[in-house]
Automatic annotation (TrEMBL):
The keyword ATP-binding does not apply. InterPro entries: DUF116 (IPR002829). The chain crosses the membrane at residues 7-31, 37-67, 79-98. This is DUF116 domain-containing protein. It comes from the Bacteria. Keywords: Membrane, Transmembrane, Transmembrane helix.
Length: 250
């Protein structure tokens, strides 16, 4: 299992251990019999902790199974994806408490989701594929408005919007540029893609991947050589590789 995936799963195992200690402590207190009044409340807490521990075992166990198994399982993939989303806020909270770099945890989440995506890849028609890029990829000095309608790009090559238009022409896939979540949701509603290649920073990708449940999303983190949200870049070879996989069925 690659390093980044381990960060998210490792924190989940940490949560499992804490829950175990809580459940054992509460069981000990109940066993001592000095808490008649709170007995039932404590029992509920013990069972709650045990339930969450069971979910973590399922999520981590299923991920390890998928990593080492060659058999794709749609059911297991969606189970893991849902459990990751359920535990996401807890994992982020733990990361904050222990002063871990949130970006690294987000990268770990995206890597696990991409891994699950690759394990259940299907063949798609070009018109069912949407490449969704953030507005900050456009050259800041460009006077043409490519948001929503990428065909307004004049192909000067000063930014990678030019490469995205190339992909649109070469493969026939949809390409859209969105300024934020609201426009991204509108694009998805209008185009109705069956699969999305989303380009964004870690924070926007994790929130988008959690929001879009019914459509598989492959996340590509953008590069920020000029700082966040300004003249960002993306590894276009990763986009092209993913388009080919989707059009060929893996
Ligand atoms: S490639 Fe297109 S979007 Fe980028 S700067 Fe040139 S005209 Fe503007």
């Amino acid at each position: 299992m690659k390093g980044k995936k381990r960060i998210f799963l490792g924190i989940m195992i940490g949560v499992f251990s804490v829950l175990g200690v809580i459940a054992l402590s509460l069981a000990y207190i109940i066993g001592k019999g000095r808490v008649e009044f709170y007995r039932y409340l404590l029992l509920v807490l013990v069972f709650g902790a045990l339930f969450l521990m069971a979910l973590i075992v399922i999520a981590v166990g299923a991920t390890i199974y998928i990593v080492f198994s060659n058999k794709p399982s749609k059911f297991l993939n969606s189970l893991i994806a849902n459990l990751l989303d359920i535990f996401y806020p807890v994992v982020i909270l733990i990361a904050r408490i222990f002063n871990l770099k949130i970006e690294r945890v987000e990268q770990s989440y995206i890597e696990i989701k991409n891994f699950l995506f690759n394990k259940s890849i299907k063949k798609y028609n070009p018109q069912d594929v949407l490449i969704l890029a953030p507005h900050c990829i456009q050259y800041s000095g460009c006077k043409f408005k490519v948001t929503y309608n990428i065909d307004n790009c004049k192909r000067c090559g000063k930014c990678q919007i030019n490469d995205l238009v190339n992909f649109k022409e070469k493969y026939g896939v949809n390409v859209a540029v969105a300024t934020g979540g609201t426009l991204a949701r509108k694009v998805i509603k209008d185009i109705k893609p069956k699969v999305i290649i989303a380009i964004a920073c870690e924070r926007d990708l994790t929130s988008g991947m959690q929001e879009v449940k019914k459509i598989p999303v492959y996340g590509i983190i953008n590069e920020r050589p000029n700082g966040p949200c300004f003249n960002t870049r993306v590894d276009v070879s990763k986009i092209e590789e993913t388009i080919k996989k989707l059009l060929n069925g893996g």
